[in-house]
Amino acid sequence: MPTLNLFTNLPVDAVIASDILKDATKAVAKIIGKPESFVMILLNGGVPIAFAGTEAPAAYGELISIGGLGPSVNGKLSSTIAEILQTKLSIDSDRFYIKFYDSPRPFFGFNGSTF
């Protein structure tokens, strides 16, 4: 159910991508309280991004979930994902935005149906 779409203007090699996918999956599952088996992470590297008028390293994320989101959870997710991006890609936390969507069950499809 929880799906995290990450976009960065940096190229991401396969080893770093794998580390980010693993770390983000564990973090999202733990913080939201959902099983890892339902978490999906998409990582898009080399996307043209300008932030604050420069093309310095930056990232944008969108996290969609059926429940589990709220002010304290969103803050923890934001800081944890920012920390992963800082550690793995050297993207400063002040060059990262993340948007949260709490989706109603009928608006999320899985296994040929909706939840």
From TrEMBL:
InterPro entries: Macrophage_inhib_fac, Tautomerase/MIF_sf. Keywords: Cytokine, Isomerase, Secreted. GO terms for molecular function: cytokine activity; dopachrome isomerase activity; phenylpyruvate tautomerase activity. The keyword Isomerase applies. The keyword Chloroplast does not apply. It comes from the Eukaryota. Pfam families: MIF. It is found in: Secreted. It is an enzyme of class 5 (isomerase). Its main location: secreted. It catalyses: 3-phenylpyruvate = enol-phenylpyruvate; L-dopachrome = 5,6-dihydroxyindole-2-carboxylate. Belongs to the MIF family. This is L-dopachrome isomerase. It comes from Solanum tuberosum. The gene is LOC102582498.
